[in-house]
TrEMBL record:
Residues in DEAD/DEAH-box helicase domain copies: 33-104
InterPro entries (UniProt xref): DEAD/DEAH_box_helicase_dom, P-loop_NTPase
Organism this protein belongs to: Mycena rosella
Stored Gene3D superfamilies: P-loop containing nucleotide triphosphate hydrolases
Pfam families per UniProt: DEAD
Entry GO MF terms: ATP binding; nucleic acid binding
Protein name: DEAD/DEAH-box helicase domain-containing protein
């Protein structure tokens, strides 16, 4: 069955919020608005270019989409109306070993 909604739709954005709150309860306020918009675009398969200051939440832009897709693959029946990729993967390129250690 084809997806009814995309991730940038109100239903898709609501699902992102629900999954982030479920998987990352420490984030009491969820994603920042700019992160939310970019995560939705990433999940819809759009390319993004993002420039944020240190501490602005760039790491969430590669980690959260992977977490969301893994959640949906594990619990497909809970999220039938949104598009997914069965084997979510991400590649993270860091310029320094120190930054790579911080991300892990």
């Amino acid at each position: 069955m084809a997806p009814q909604y995309d991730w940038c739709s109100p239903q898709g954005r609501q699902t992102i919020t629900i999954i982030v709150k479920k998987l990352i309860p420490e984030w009491k306020n969820g994603l920042y608005p700019s992160q939310h918009t970019l995560v939705a675009r990433i999940l819809d398969g759009q390319n993004i270019l993002c420039c944020m200051a240190t501490g602005g939440g760039k790491s969430a832009l590669f980690a959260v989409p992977i977490l969301i897709l893994r959640e949906i693959v594990r619990n497909r029946g809970l999220y039938p109306d949104l598009p997914i990729r069965e084997l979510p993967q991400g590649i993270v390129i860091t310029p320094t070993k120190g930054l790579a250690a911080n991300i892990v």
